[in-house]
Structures are given as structure tokens and as C-alpha cells.
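Researcher: I've got a protein sequence and the SMILES for S-adenosylmethionine. Could you write out the 3D structure of the bound complex as C-alpha cells? I'd like something to compare against our soaking experiments later this week.
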Amino acid sequence: MLRTIDDARFWDGIARKYATSRIKDMPGYQRSIERTRKLLSNSDTVLEIGCGTGTTALKLAPFVRRIVGSDVSTEMVAIAREKALALGCQQAEFTVAAAESSPGSDGSYDAVLAFNLLHLISDRPSTLARIHRLLKPGGLFVSKTPCLSEMNPLIRVAVPLMRFVGKAPFVSLFAAPALEAEIAGAGFTIDERERHGTGPKDARIFIVARKPG
Ligand SMILES: C[S@@+](CC[C@H](N)C(=O)[O-])C[C@H]1O[C@@H](n2cnc3c(N)ncnc32)[C@H](O)[C@@H]1O
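Model: Sure. Here is the predicted complex with S-adenosylmethionine in place.
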């Protein structure tokens, strides 16, 4: 829990800067948005965990019945709410919550989304169990995750150093097969896996998993 509070502080501190930074891999981002949009329908109730400043939730909102964005950072959520208000978006709402205590009642969502988040979660088994409970039978868990251990080996040294000086949040290094095994181990079947990072060194795995019906 202490780690989650520290991480919330870290993300609060960079939220305003994060909101104005450009998406580094725009073609990869657009690919993920398009792919996700095709998986959703206009009758769906959707949860996006680790929603950040709400960019993705607000893009998907017109295509679903309702989307809830949640994030551990109060500042990120404040920005997401400002953006929803500015857009006049009625289908999206935003709330502060750590991933392992994501909002909603059991079996209430058609889909749960987690983009650029799972590598930042220290207790992934609890988070995956929570997502599984929140989904309806047959519901989808769609995630996109940087697999940092497949990237530059220097990252193994750089991340702990940056964390030590307060310049990085908790970050977990794993490869795609390990993440896939964790998701399957939480009771999901894996429907699809795609690589959505378009740069040669961008090892992001896009996984579509399903809670068995
Ligand atoms: C790299 S940003 C990604 C934001 C957004 N999903 C995107 O793809 O642009 C990670 C986000 O996860 C949130 N986050 C980090 N740890 C979290 C946790 N334990 N529970 C919920 N959200 C968390 C951060 O506050 C931040 O907004």
C-alpha cells in the first residue's frame, strides 16, 4: 500500500506535464485505439484502469454506452474531468482508485482496458483478480504493455537508479510470454496478441483476453 501511495505522489507530480506531452508512437497508439474500438459496442459498459488524463477513454466514449476511467493519481483524474467537461462528454466519468481496488461491482463491465499500466503495478495478481471479478462472463480484458526486459538492457540498471532518486515510479521488467502467463493464470483465455509498438525498439504487447462465459 505504501508503494501505491508513493506512486500516486509521483504521478500527481508529473500529471500537468504529462497532459501536455505528445504521444511518442502515434501510429502505434492509433492502431491500439482502432483495434480496441472494433472490440467494443455501443451497448458496452467499459472500465479503463490507469486512465491517466483520460485521452483514450474520451476517444472511445462516443462508441460505448458508458466508460469509467480510474487512476491512482488525483491530479490525472482532475485533468481527465476537465477534459470531459470541455468536450461536453456525457458517457465518460473519472474516479480515483488504485488498480487493485478498481471501482465497480462484480460482473458489471463488458470490457476492462489497461494501457501502459501493467508494468507499473507491483501487485499484478491482485489487480488481475479484481479485473476478472469486475467483468461479466464473456467480458474482455484488453491491455497494451511495454515489455521492458525485451528492450535496451541498460534499462535494468537505469530504472532502479531513477527510482532511487525519485525520478521513476515502481516499474516491473518482464517479457511478453511472462505477462501472458500471468493473465492466463488469473483465469482468462487469450483471444489475441499483437505487437503495437511501431519503433524497432518498442516492445509493446497488445493482448485481448476473455473471461470465460
Ligand atoms: C504511463 S501512464 C499511462 C496513462 C494512459 N493509460 C495512457 O496510455 O496514456 C500510467 C498511468 O497509470 C497510473 N497508475 C500508476 N500506478 C497505478 C496504480 N497502482 N493503480 C492505478 N493507476 C496507476 C498513473 O497515475 C498514470 O496515470
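Model: Helices lie at 2-20, 26-39, 55-60, 74-87, 124-134, 155-164, 176-185. Residues 2-20 form the longest helix (19 residues).
Researcher: Great, I'll pass this along to the crystallography team.
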